[in-house]
Amino acid sequence: MWIFGRKGASGFSACSTAEEVTQGIDGAGLTAIVTGATSGIGIETTRVLALHGVHGASTTCYVALHPKVKGVSGEYFSDNNIATNTTTSLAKDSELAKKLWEFSLDLTNPK
């Protein structure tokens, strides 16, 4: 038998699929942060976790870390892309943004 096809103590091998490994898992109420969730094994991991009800933070991580969005401000993102048809005049209101920022500081920095 080929070495990578040999099952280990877990009952899985290098040939096992993500669906096989996660069969029977209920991920409802769980949140996962998967780095590299937009390609390769990261996208497969994210896909299978989502099948089991796990919520993710892919878009949050993308906006925080990806060089493609460096300098982008005032946009809404969904599924690692700028969301379309979602902005209102309130979303672009700089005075409202300033008030929200000050309110957030008051909440997180008690005197």
UniProtKB/TrEMBL annotation:
InterPro entries: NAD(P)-bd_dom_sf (IPR036291), TIC32 (IPR055280). This is Short-chain dehydrogenase TIC 32, chloroplastic. The lineage of its organism: Eukaryota, Viridiplantae, Streptophyta, Embryophyta, Tracheophyta.
